[in-house]
Design goal:
Translation Initiation Factor IF3; 31% helix; 3 helices; four-stranded mixed beta sheet; 30% strand; alpha+beta; 4 strands; 83 residues; globular
């Protein structure tokens, strides 16, 4: 397992989800990706995307400056096909 970060700050919907999707596509199952963004919609959009594509949200929080930190664990790419 490896840990990675993605800076999606100052991007508006749907770009944080698209950038997350693109980055996850380059990772291995079990890797952890921390996404930093400022779009409040990402607090629901990225967890929903994870649920639909077999990834696991490990944590989410927002700091006083409005920066959102979402930590996800990469799941199986065949998860969605098996549903």
């Amino acid at each position: 397992m490896s840990a990675y970060t993605l800076d999606a700050k100052q991007l508006l919907c749907p770009l944080p989800v698209i950038r997350t999707q693109d980055r996850v596509a380059t990772l291995k199952i079990g890797d952890v990706l921390t996404v930093y963004c400022t779009d409040p919609g990402a607090l629901s959009d990225i967890p929903t995307w994870c649920r639909l594509h077999g990834h696991t949200m490990l944590s989410s929080k927002e700091d006083v400056d409005g920066v959102i930190e979402l930590v996800l664990k990469v799941g199986s790419p065949i998860y969605h096909a098996q549903q």
